[in-house]
Design brief:
16-stranded antiparallel sheet, 2 helices, about 0% helix, mainly beta, about 700 residues
Length: about 700
């Protein structure tokens, strides 16, 4: 092998090294033949033969040419002429590959420039080069290497070898980095809303913030614009501001009986840690808020083509906490907007707000003795609204617990005294008493053991414990509104057994929980016997059975059987649940004993997902009400995913909230077929063929 170092001259600001089987030089012209390798600051080139003029930087290459430019761009050609000083040249034919996006271009000839490639009679795709699943043929095009943007003139879109669409012009980006430009558009078609098109526009002027605008059109419904401003103002914080407006066509709003013909809203979010802890030692704090405003629920439903389901009660939150050693202080606020208030009210003045809640907690600590522990919890709630009763509630809770262990730590016991008190002061209502008071204390006695033992073929662990709650003093005076939650307990005794079995390899095989609660204050003394059993057949499949037996009615009140499986190919869950009208949930808190409004129900839930077929993902979910003999929900479909494209077809059923002028339509049930086709990196097209039915109170 011969080699030559071509040193720089005044006319040649490039350091070029040429390696080949044979290298010769005549004047300033270097001729290399056989396994040619050329290095320059910008390129790494291989070829069968090369001519390089040191004087002017001209380079001509022949045969099996590979040109690597940086870490992203590579090209193959049979003949290339390029000037290494100006980076200008021609190549015929040319195969160009952008590694960052997997997009390739094949053309008969190309003009090479420092920042662009101009191609003639070309094909572009991101699929396999041999028989691509999709491709675009175009007469001429330009690829901007700096902005990573491809412009195509007279493109014809092919599915395999079948032409499906012609356009006079089309362009898309191959850039996946954060930068200003157009994002992937969204297309859709609905029988009611017509053709849907949204084109996101992204602005990234600085590393600390960006802006995204999302103009959209729905040909039968209306037009709108939404936008989001995102920012990072410190190493510990980030936030966003989202707003938008959608204007309905007058005929659509009239036909659908919409309360508003325009929808608008605002959302501001912010999350920050170390607000004060940067300045003060031994302090941990955090700030988070999510502020929302909208004129009706369709503001959410017009943000994207995917119709979204939201609760009609929209919540704004503001939370801050600070923690130091054993003390915690929190400030929480909740503000609700009822988008469909109960008639005859049409505004939000009667909606109860929580502005704010103040929370102080002192963590568990020893008191005088190492085994005597206590903690303190205080909360102040301010319930307010413009019209209707308001309240200010103070809550205090303090448990004191004494721990013991016996028989060389085989037996453990604890005794606790729990004090709870609350005071409520009311306003805005002269018809009720102006305050309410409640306090109580209860004793809790616990006795438990935790055991484990190895056997020849398995390992067994067990927890067995009994807890008794004895309410002691209790006093309630004044009025307690229905929105005030009191921490009231009932006299009860709970027996709990938890056990686990492991095989000789340490794999969990069986888990079992048995719980029985006894009530002293109710007419029915025994709560439901709860039995939960899981058998792990393998590390991929387990059987589950949960049973509740009602002693009061001498029957099974709840029965649930499930089988679950998951591996790299399959994931499925089949569950049957039966619940009798006699079912009562076990709880240590006081509850109403009236179960006359309960109803029997039984249903089957199925979820399955399979990747058995190469490139296909088949999925389904079913919720079938056995009692009423009807499907509550249904979803089935499949998705085919390849390197360069995917598509999915699914049947789905969904419920979307809707606000009408009559305020009688609570939601819309939409069911139908959804088709989605996605081409990488061009974008996606969807078609939604659905029918709607109104859900009324």
């Amino acid at each position: 092998m011969g080699s030559l170092w071509a040193a720089p001259t005044q006319k040649t600001p490039q350091d070029v090294e040429v390696l080949a089987n044979n290298v010769s030089k005549e004047g300033t012209l270097v001729h290399a033949v056989g396994n040619v390798v050329l290095y320059s600051p910008k390129y790494l080139i291989t070829a069968d033969e090369a001519f390089y003029d040191q004087a002017n930087g001209d380079l001509e290459l022949f045969g099996n040419i590979t040109l690597l430019e940086g870490v992203n761009y590579a090209s193959r050609s049979g003949h290339t002429k390029i000037n290494l000083n100006t980076d200008k040249g021609v190549s015929d034919p040319l195969f160009f590959f952008d590694e960052s996006s997997d997009v390739w271009i094949k053309c008969e000839n190309a003009i090479l420039n420092p920042d662009t490639y101009i191609t003639q009679k070309s094909i572009v795709s991101s699929c396999n080069t041999q028989d691509p699943d999709w491709k675009i043929a175009f007469t001429s095009g330009e690829f901007d290497k700096e902005n990573k943007w491809l412009h195509l003139y007279n493109p014809v879109f092919y599915a395999g070898d079948v032409p499906v669409l012609y356009l006079p012009y089309f362009s898309f980006t191959t850039d996946k980095t954060r930068r200003t430009g157009l994002l992937k558009p969204e297309f859709g078609m609905s029988s009611k809303e017509g053709f849907y098109y949204m084109q996101p526009i992204y602005f990234a002027p600085d590393v600390n913030y960006d802006v995204e605008l999302r103009p959209q059109i729905r040909t039968n419904r209306g037009e709108g614009m939404h936008g989001t401003y995102r920012f990072v103002d410190s190493a510990y914080s980030n936030g966003s501001i989202t707003t938008g407006y959608f204007k309905e066509h007058s005929d659509y709003a009239k036909d659908e009986n919409l309360k508003n013909d325009s929808h608008y809203g605002l959302q501001v979010t912010y999350d920050r840690s170390q607000l004060l802890s940067e300045k003060y030692n031994n302090i941990e704090d955090g700030l988070w808020f999510d502020i929302n405003y909208l004129n009706d629920i369709d503001y959410y439903n017009t943000m994207r083509n995917e119709t979204l389901g939201y609760d009609k009660l929209v919540t704004s939150r503001f939370n801050y906490y600070v923690k130091h050693d054993q003390d915690y202080i929190g400030l929480y606020t909740k503000y609700y907007i009822d988008t469909n208030p109960p008639l005859p009210r049409t505004d939000n003045k009667g909606t109860l707000q929580e502005l704010p809640t103040l929370h102080y907690h002192h963590f568990t600590n020893p008191l005088l003795l190492d085994n005597l522990l206590y903690s303190v919890d205080y909360q102040a709630h301010n319930y307010t609204r413009s019209e209707g009763i308001t309240a200010f509630q103070n809550e205090f809770n303090a448990p004191f617990t004494l721990y013991f262990s016996f028989l060389e730590d085989y037996l453990h016991a604890s005794v606790s005294e729990n004090i709870y008190a609350t005071h409520i002061a009311y306003g805005n209502d002269d018809t009720q008493e102006n305050e309410g008071k409640y306090w109580r204390n209860y004793h809790k006695f616990s006795l438990y053991t935790e055991l484990s033992k190895p056997y020849d073929n398995f390992y067994h662990t067990m927890y067995l414990g009994i807890d008794q709650i004895l309410p002691s003093k209790e006093d309630e005076n004044g009025y307690v509104a229905n929105f005030i939650a009191l921490n009231t307990l009932t006299k009860s005794t709970s027996l709990t057994l938890k056990e686990f079995f492991y095989n000789e390899d340490g794999e969990k095989k069986v888990s079992h929980t048995l719980k029985q609660i006894y009530y002293s204050d109710y007419d029915y003394k025994y709560g439901n016997l709860e039995n939960d059993l899981k058998y792990y057949i393998t590390d991929k499949i387990y059987l589950g059975h949960t049973l509740h037996y009602s002693h009061e009615f001498s029957k099974v009140s709840r029965n649930q059987v499930s089988i679950n499986y998951a591996d790299d190919i399959y994931s499925t869950s089949l569950r049957y649940t039966y619940q009798d009208k006699t079912y009562r949930e076990n709880t240590i808190y006081k509850v109403s004993q009236d179960i006359s409004s309960n109803k029997d129900y039984s249903f089957v839930t199925l979820y399955a997902d399979s990747k058995y077929f190469t490139h296909y993902n088949v999925f389904t979910s079913v919720d079938y009400d056995v009692q009423d003999d009807q499907f509550r929900s249904w979803n089935i479909g499949f998705k085919k995913s390849l390197k360069c494209w995917d598509y999915s077809i699914q049947y789905r059923d969904k419920i979307t909230p809707k606000l009408t002028s009559a305020s009688v339509v609570d939601s819309v049930n939409r069911e139908g077929i959804m088709f989605m086709f996605n081409i990488y990196p061009l974008g996606s097209v969807g078609y939604d063929l659905s029918k709607e039915s109104e859900q009324k109170f």
